[in-house]
Amino acid sequence: MKARVFVTLKTGVLDPQGKAIGHALNGLGFRTVGEVRQGKVIDLDLAEKNETAARASLREMCEKLLANTVIEKYEIELKP
Amino acid sequence: MVWHADSEIPDVDLIVLPGGFAYGDYLRSGAMAALSNAMRDVIDKAQKGVTVLGICNGFQVLTESRLLPGALMRNAGLKFTCRGVGLEVNETQSVFTRKYDHGQRVVFPVANGEGNYYADDETLDRLEGEGRVVFRYADGENPNGSVRNIAGILNEKRNVLGLMPHPERVVDPLLGGTDGRAMFESLLEGLG
């Protein structure tokens, strides 16, 4: 099973990289761009066949390593 | 010196997690290092009361391992900043700072790209209320956007200190300053 994990900063946590990207886009003439937030995408191959088990182990991976839950939140997407 | 794969730290009075970079700082600064074999025993010993000092990358490892609250994020100005900054010693009731005067102004170098301290307001109020903010960037000196100008904090038991600036780089006139000496003199006196 393939999984994709999105790690992004929590709402309210300042994202200077996102801000810089936003400025650059405005500078390129994309005037409609408002706030920009940057995050990470992590793709994983899993041996699990069962979706519930895969989600449970991915949640544990996120809590223990993939995200720092002090500042980041995560979303899990499974692709059977 | 202890190798990261070693699972036991010898019996010592002080454990120092120095600055630098660990595991390429992949994923987040200090994230992989916090899971290393050696850190398991550091966490265990810290919880038993052994004195632990984390400087720069060491501070990042301490927050990632949850020995200290909060997190260190990308500098607000996005640049790696390497220069001396003015700090205030905010707390002298600690084994790390007993030889400083309360409110003393010191200059320590910073050298980091991810030194922007962040914690939620509840945590920050608690840190301040319990006298655990040991170092603050002086007004107008904050080099990285750290919330409430926080440069260094203690854990609840006050045996673990993490700070982004480098006191060990100013311990001799040859290095360009001696403001950091009092920290090591404090430790020698307090742990001797």
Helix/strand layout:
The complex is a heterodimer of chains A (80) and B (192).
Chain A lengths: L1 E8 L6 H12 L11 E7 L5 H16 L5 E8 L1
Antiparallel strand pairs in A: 1-2, 1-3
Chain B lengths: L13 E4 L19 H11 L3 E5 L1 H8 L6 E3 L7 E9 L15 E8 L3 E3 L2 H9 L3 E5 L12 E5 L5 E4 L17 H11 L1
Parallel strand pairs in B: 1-2, 2-9
Antiparallel strand pairs in B: 3-6, 4-5, 4-7, 7-8, 8-9
- The CATH class of chain A, by name, is Alpha Beta
The unreliable regions of chain A are none
Q: Which bin fits the share of residues in helices of chain B? A: 10-25%
Beta-strand proportion of chain B: 15-25%
Most strands sheet of chain A = 3 strands, antiparallel
Helix-and-strand structural type of chain B: alpha+beta
Name the overall outline of chain A: elongated
User: What do we call the CATH topology of chain B?
Assistant: Rossmann fold
On the 0 to 100 scale, the average pLDDT of chain A is: 95
What CATH architecture label of chain A applies?
A: 2-Layer Sandwich
Describe the structure.
- With 80 residues, chain A is of the alpha+beta class.
- Chain A is built from 2 helices and 3 strands.
- Chain A has helices at residues 16-27, 51-66; strands at residues 2-9, 39-45, 72-79.
- A 3-stranded antiparallel beta sheet of chain A has the order 2-1-3, with helices on one face.
- Chain A is elongated.
- The longest helix of chain B is centred in the first third of the chain and has 11 residues, at 37-47.
- The two termini of chain B are 20 Å apart.
- Chain B is 20% helix and 24% strand.
- In chain B, helix 1 links the parallel strand 1 (14-17) and strand 2.
- The A-B interface holds A 13-14, 16-17, 20, 64-66, 68, 70-71 and B 27-28, 31, 35, 63-64, 69-71, 73-78, 116, 118-119, 145.
